[in-house]
Amino acid sequence: MRIGYGFDIHRTDADRPLVLGGVTFDDAPFGLTGHSDADVVIHALIDALLGALALGDIGRWFPDSDPQWAGADSRRLLERVVAEMSRAGWRPGNVDITVIAERPRLAGRIEAMRRSLAALLDCAAEQVSVKATTHEGIGPLGGQEAIAAHAVALLVPAEPDASPAKPPAGPAGGEELS
Ligand SMILES: [Zn+2]
């Protein structure tokens, strides 16, 4: 198994739509600033996956100096990382995400985010946890200046018999070590 952790934070911006976990919140009081669509949930998840694969970070894969990612739909970025994960022989065991947002209240959209992320990860919604909390009015997060997300991802071999992490075969003759 491989485990990875990701964190991301974006400033709020009243002139942009709010997109979290690939879900657009039409009724949100603000969106987030960023080079792409600023989906802080997907960005944290991407970093968790890349961390588990030891393949660098989102900034290396999708640099904000590169115009091709301007306004990018973060779902497309996640798809690219998921393809890379599959190529390397891994699939998600489960992922767990915590979003920190003072507003809007996310409880009513948790299931939509889980389904959205599960579809992108090509796994079941039961393998995807999304939790939301506020920052209790404390600091920039509590003051609605930003929204942040933490993510952890556990990866398992896509095919147990072809595990990239499988130890080398034992000595010829099937001798067992005790
Ligand atoms: Zn980001």
Helix/strand layout:
Elements: E1 2-13, E2 18-20, E3 23-25, E4 31-32, H1 40-53, H2 58-61, H3 74-87, E5 90-100, H4 110-121, E6 128-133, H5 139-142, E7 146-157
Parallel strand pairs: 5-6
Antiparallel strand pairs: 1-4, 1-7, 2-3, 5-7
Helix pairs in contact: 1-3
The chain binds zinc ion.
The site of zinc ion has 5 residues, from strand 1 and helix 1.
List keywords for this structure.
60s Ribosomal Protein L30, Chain: A; 27% helix; alpha+beta; 7 strands; binds zinc ion; 5-stranded mixed beta sheet; globular; single chain
Short description:
This protein has 178 residues and is α+β, with helices and mostly antiparallel strands. It has helices spanning 40-53, 58-61, 74-87, 110-121, 139-142, and strands at 2-13, 18-20, 23-25, 31-32, 90-100, 128-133, 146-157.
